[in-house]
C-alpha cells in the first residue's frame, strides 16, 4: 500500500496518474478547460468536482492534483492545495479563515512579506494581529486568548534561525480553540514533520527546496480535507491563486530528488557551520544544531537534521557588502533552497521595508548574512567564504 512506502518512494510515485498512453514520466496537462460529452455531464461536474473530474485549471488540473497528493503524502496530511507562490499559500491560509474582528497571534520573527500580510492586509480589514516573541511560551499563553482564530509561525525563522517549540505552542493554541498554521520552509518536509508536533495546517513555498533549482514559483497548503476543500479551496478558486499545471509538473520533478538534495545540502551546511563557528573574524554564527544556538536541544528534538541554512554576522553593512562582493562560487540572490549556494543581506533586501527598530528587535543587524547552502563541494564553498573573509 502507498501509505506504507518510505519517503523516497513516495516522492517518486505518490499521486501518479497515467493517460491511455501509459507514459512513464508525469504528463503535463497543459490545458485550462476540459471537454464534456454531454450537457448533463457538464452540469454534474459543476455540482461536485471530486477525484479525477475537472472543470477549469483554476479549480483543479490532473498535473496539479498529482503534485497535491504527493506533497500531502509526504506531510502525512489528508489533502493539499497548490498555489501560485509561497506567499499565495500564506495569504490564502490566513485570509480564508478570517473576518473583521477575528484575532490572530503570530511569532514576531517572520519573513517580511508574511508580516506585510498580517499587518498591512489583514490588519487593514479589521483583523486583530498580535505579534509575540516566538521563543517565549509565556508570551504565547498571554496572547492566545479564548476565541483566537489562529496562531501563525515559522518553524525556523527567516533569517535569524530561531526555533519555536511547536508542540508547546500547539497545545496553547488548541486549548483556546485556535488553528495552528506553520510555515515549514526552512526546516523542509524532509527534516521536519510538524503535523506530528500539533500543526493543523502546513505551508511551503515550493519555489525553495521542492523545486530546488530556481526555475519556478509555487506554494502549497497542506491540511485536513475539511480545511483544504471546505475552508481554503473556495477562497483560492475565486481569487485566482492556483498553481499553473506547468509549474506543478516542475515541482513533481523536483520532488523526485528532494530527499537526496536536502540531505546532501544539510551535510555540507553542517561542515560550513562548524568551520565558521571557530572563525574569530565573525560575530554570531547561527545554525540550529550548533552548541551556541539557544534552542539547540529543541531543534534536535524537532528536526532530524539541522537544515540547509546558516546565518552569520559581520561588523557592519559596509563589511557585509565587501564580503558579498568578494564571493565567487556563492551567488548573491534572495531565494533559498536552491542547488546553487546563495548569500543574502536581509537588512537591505528581504526585510528592508521593516523599520530599523524592528530589525534590531529581530536580530537583523546591518552585518547579518543569510547563507543558503547548495549542492557544490563543501571544500569549495568553505574556500570561497574564507577568501571573501580575507578580502575584508
Describe the structure.
With about 400 residues, this protein is of the alpha/beta class. It is built from 15 helices and 12 strands. It has helices spanning about 5-15, 40-45, 60-75, 85-95, 110-120, 135-145, 165-175, 190, 225-240, 245-255, 260-275, 295-300, 315-325, 355-360, 380-390; strands at about 80-85, 105, 130, 150-155, 180-185, 200-205, 220-225, 285, 310-315, 330, 340-345, 370. It has a 7-stranded mixed beta sheet with strand order 1-7-6-5-4-2-3, with helices on both faces. Strand 5 (about 180-185), helix 8 (about 190) and strand 6 form a beta-alpha-beta unit. Helix 3 (about 60-75) packs parallel to helix 10 and helix 4 runs parallel beside helix 5. It is globular and about 75 Å long.
SSE topology sketch:
Layout (H helix, E strand, L loop, with lengths): L6 H7 L25 H9 L14 H14 L3 E5 L2 H10 L7 E5 L4 H11 L5 E5 L4 H7 L6 E5 L11 H10 L3 E5 L4 H4 L9 E5 L13 E5 L1 H15 L5 H11 L2 H20 L7 E2 L9 H7 L6 E5 L3 H10 L4 E2 L9 E3 L11 H7 L5 E5 L5 H14 L1
Parallel strand pairs: 2-3, 2-4, 4-5, 5-6, 10-11
Antiparallel strand pairs: 1-7, 6-7, 8-9, 9-12, 11-12
